[in-house]
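Q: Got one fold?
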Amino acid sequence: MTETPHLTFDPEAPGLSIGNLVVPNGADYGALSLPVFNLNKGEGPRLLITGGCHGNELEGPIVARRVIEWLPKAQTCGRVIIVPVLNPLALQACTRNTPIDGLNLNRVFPGRADGTVTERIADAVSGLLLPMVDTVFDLHSFGPTWDFPPAATTHPVADRDLMARTVRMADAFKLPATLLWEHDDTPGMFDTFAQTQGKVFICAEFGGGTVTSEALAIYEAGVRNALVALGLVQGESDYPTFRQRKSGQTLETLASDKLKSPAQGIFEPRCSVLDRIKQGDLIGILHPLVSLSTHSIHIRAPTTSIVCAIRSGLHVDRDEELALLARPLKG
C-alpha cells in the first residue's frame, strides 16, 4: 500500500500535542517529518500558523517558535496549529526554492501526492492541516534586497464577504501597513488555494530580510494582536513602534504600481518605505556602469502615492523592479 501523509498524534485530543506531519517519500527524496504544535482548547476559532515556506525568510520560523513558548498559558479557547518550518530542505539551504526539485512551495498548491518533494509537502498541508482550520497566518519576509515595512497582506478575493473578513483580520495585526496587493495571476499560491476553500488567509510579510531583535519584537506583537482579535488570547492589542511611530494604515497596490529599471546599473534609493510622495518626486537614482560619461538616471514618482517597498541598494538589470507604490484603500 502506498504511504500517505499523516500526523503522528491525534489532533482531536484535548490540550497540547506535539508531533510531526509526515510527508511520504517519493522518487526524488525520502520522507520528511515536519514538527507540528497543536493546542486544542475546545470550541472557538481554529487557526493554522505556518513559517518557512521560503527557506531564505527566517523571521517566520523564529516568530512561530516564540509564540509556541507562551501560547499554552495564554490561549483560552479554540485550536491553534503551528508548523514553524514548512520547507526544511529550502531552510537548510537558505534558498527561496527547494534545492531538490527547484520548485517554489508557494507556487505548487494544492500539490500532488505522486509529485516531487515540494509538491508532496503542499499535498500534505492541503489534505491534512487546512481542513482543520478556518484561518491561516503564513509568516514570510520580503527578502534581503528590499526595504519593506512589517505588513499584513492579502490579495483581492472575489467573494466580497470573505474579502471583508480577510481585510479586518489583516488590520487586526496592527502592523505599520495592511496591504491589499493585486498580483499578476500566479497559479499555485497557498493563499489562493486556501481562499477557494473559504479560509481567511493572511500573509504576514515581515519587512526586509535582515533578522534583528527589534524587527522580531514587532512581528511577534503583530501575531499576538491578531490572536487577541480572534478571541484565542485575552488582553489588549496595540500598534508596535516602527521607526519611532505607532500607527497603521490600510493600502492597496496594483500590478501597474511596480517601477522597473530602464537600464542596468547600481540603484541608489532616495526615499524610505511609507514615505508619502508626489508626482515627480525623486524615488532613486540609477547609476549606469557602462561608462563614466553616461549620465545617471533619475527615477521619479509617476503619481502621488506612498512608497510601499524599495530596493535596498544593489546592482539591477533592465526591467528589474526598483520600487512598489501604493495608496490608501478606498472603503
